[in-house]
Specification:
Layout lengths: L7 H17 L4 H9 L12 E3 L12 E3 L5 E3 L8 E6 L4 H16 L6 E6 L4 H11 L5 E3 L5 H5 L11 E5 L5 E6 L4 H12 L3
Length: 200
């Protein structure tokens, strides 16, 4: 018996819980309709909609500790005082593949400002996640969130990842500052990060 891998039933329960959390916080009837339609594309696609949260309206900091696809522990708290960009993705998701170069480019552009990009893989095991990073030359870390959904659940009750992909910008205090549902537009994400770095 392999004790390292959770059972299919346990994994399904965790993933189901994460999806319920995401849909419960979803304000878009379109996303719920996609889930209920039973289409064969295997992901709920966002429409590129952008939500910005005023500083005065931001709630509690997001807190999580998770394990990267390289087996290292990573925590949001480690980046206190820095802007963090969370990108929720998985390898076979078409818009995730399209947006990967833009995310890598922006991660390099803002590295001198202390901005930390973190991928959150919601479906794949570590080997697949690492292969994707090699293929698309992604240098920032990705956590494997498929078995325990730690990062997804940390965003429960906030503006969470209601589609795949979703990109969330956390301010220097770890609070949600902005969210893009669906494939990112590089110029829009650039502006969101720049504003957040500037304290807006």
């Amino acid at each position: 018996m392999n004790l390292k891998r959770p059972s299919t039933l346990v994994r399904a329960a965790v993933l189901g819980a994460a999806l319920v959390v995401a849909l419960a916080g979803c304000s878009s009837n379109d996303l719920l309709a996609q889930y209920q339609s039973g289409s064969n594309k295997n992901y709920i696609s966002g429409d590129g909609s952008v939500t910005e949260v005023k500083v005065s309206d931001r709630t509690d900091p997001v807190q999580f500790t998770a394990t990267t696809d390289e087996g290292k522990s990573i925590s949001r708290k480690t980046y206190e005082g820095h802007v963090v960009v969370l990108n929720f993705w998985y390898a076979s998701c078409p818009p995730c593949r399209v947006e990967a170069p833009a995310l890598q480019s922006l991660s390099e552009q803002y590295s001198s400002d202390g901005v930390q990009f973190i991928g959150v893989n919601v479906r794949d095991e570590s080997d697949t996640s690492r292969a994707f990073a090699r293929n698309f030359k992604i240098t920032y870390p990705s956590v494997t969130d498929v078995t325990d959904a730690k990062v997804q659940l940390a965003l429960a009750g906030t503006r969470g990842p209601n589609s795949t992909p979703t990109t969330i910008v956390l301010d220097s205090k770890g609070r949600v500052a902005a969210r893009i549902l669906g494939e990112v537009d590089k110029s829009i994400l650039n502006t969101l990060i720049s504003d957040t770095v500037a304290g807006k």
